[in-house]
Amino acid sequence: MYQNLAVLAVFVYVYSILAGKLERLPIGGPILWVAFGLLVGPVGLGFLVLDIDAEGLLRLAEITLAVILFTDAANADLKELGRSLHIPRRLLLIGLPLTILAGFGTGYLLFAGIGLFELAILSTMLAPTDAALGKAVVSNKAVPSDVREGLNVESGLNDGICVPVLFVFLELAAGAAGEGSTTGLVVGHLVEELGIGLAVGLGLTAIGAWIFRFAAIREWVSDHWAQIPVIMLALASFAIAQSLGGSGFIAAFTGGLLFGSMAKTRKHDLLRAAEATGDTLSLFTWVVFGAAVVGPALGLFTWPVLVYAILSLTLVRMVPVFLSLIGLGMRNDAKLFIGWFGPRGLASIVFAVIVVGAQLPGGETLTLTVVATVLLSVIGHGLTAQPLATAFGARAKKEN
Question: Chain centroid to CA 356: how far?
């Protein structure tokens, strides 16, 4: 344990003091974090030997995603979001279902012997985009604000929407759903997950922000503790929604949106510690992913798995996005840009761990495909985020 702690502590220390320099490189942070995990993990130098099971990885990824969703939502430009809401609405209501359908069809062509419900599970696991991996784009001021806010909202909500869909397919794969009950099962899960998530996220944040303001006016809050309530509010929103049977991801994202609107001018100061916490948790998660997941999986990838991963990041995502944005008056390069920057990451990892616990007949193939897709996404989106965002932003500015 102490050796693992020493390795992680030294790496975080070195990365934190070089972050300003490293973030200007044409590679994203997650590439370095996964590479470091792979290097010092069991298949590398063997310095980092993590005794972490699927449950531990699941909790780490969930908490990381909850904090990131809350802070990303809180930092959203609500005025711009109001003007560009048509983009995430199309992406979520049209693009997301089409992506799941395209992923299902691709799996049907590539994976012989995998059941239909298992293929649906695979496509659902890889449909949501990742807020952490997409941060390099949504925080890049060179990218037009409507595109940034659209991608931010899409990544904040699509994982929460996919949770009930995933559980429906899991129940169908396990034979838990009776004949003719599929529609009722889908509607029931959606209402429960989304309804509870929205109620907890908005209700708890409203109460928490009001109490914080009440205490701040009376100078009960010290400067030393002022940034801690935001982190706890993000975690509480997630945990309470999950414990009540709702979507903690929806709760975290919608809570963050409300907090950002209530905090207004002070939000950047209040969010600083929460953003640093999210980044640190993200670093830990990706190092663990590289050491404990990517390393052992490297020699197990098959050609169908790799082909599916490549198609999932390209045609399976980009064609549905392009089609969903038709009629909005957007340039083709903007549609392609939005389609490409749909990275897969923490949400897919969370879903994969859940599926591992379900012990499906084709579970190993499904898990390996998710790992391959996330790994290729970390590399592909990490390498292209800065250059493509800069080029797209410059072209958009020139056109305007």
Answer: 19
